[in-house]
Amino acid sequence: MNFIRTEIDGVVIIEPRRFGDERGYFCETFKREEFEREVGKVDFIQDNESLSRRGVVRGLHFQRGASSQAKLVRVSQGEVVDVVVDLRGGSPTFGRHLAVTLSADNGRQMFVPRGFAHGFAVVSEVAQFQYKVDNVYDPASEVTLSFDDPALAIEWPIAREEMLLSPKDLRGLSLEEIEPF
User: Fold this and answer.
1) Would you kindly state where each structural domain of the chain is located, as residue ranges?
2) Per the residue annotation, which of 61, 97, 118, 137 is the catalytic one?
3) What pLDDT is recorded for position 159?
4) Is 61 among the catalytic positions?
């Protein structure tokens, strides 16, 4: 696997090696020893999956305190633009975001450490999104950062009038209202 450091410390893009022929391909999507050597020790305890159609924007979500989560995200069908926002107090990149295209075709994954808001926009007809987490979901600790906060200046690949958003995502807080980690 190829581990690519990003301009935001702790966020890592991972490109699995694919071995293919006329039948298709094989690749390892996670190998603990290699991951720990390149990224660090993370005890993933649960795998999750969502299926969304074109125009869906999910996020920007995170959990507070002892319920915060690190994630390893990837797309097994379709394509998304995946976005993370640094919410770590004292971080030189606090409030900055990173947007990366993840797709079944490119096979890329992204490691999102604790202390980040996370979301994605579906740009293909459908997208199957898979992610490992190191902590269980705790609805009482969940917070939504506004996907369209002008302070974040995220250039989503979907026009606002075409976005499909949940009521929760429409009520997200501004960066100014978020207490840093």
Assistant:
1) 2-177
2) 61
3) 96
4) yes
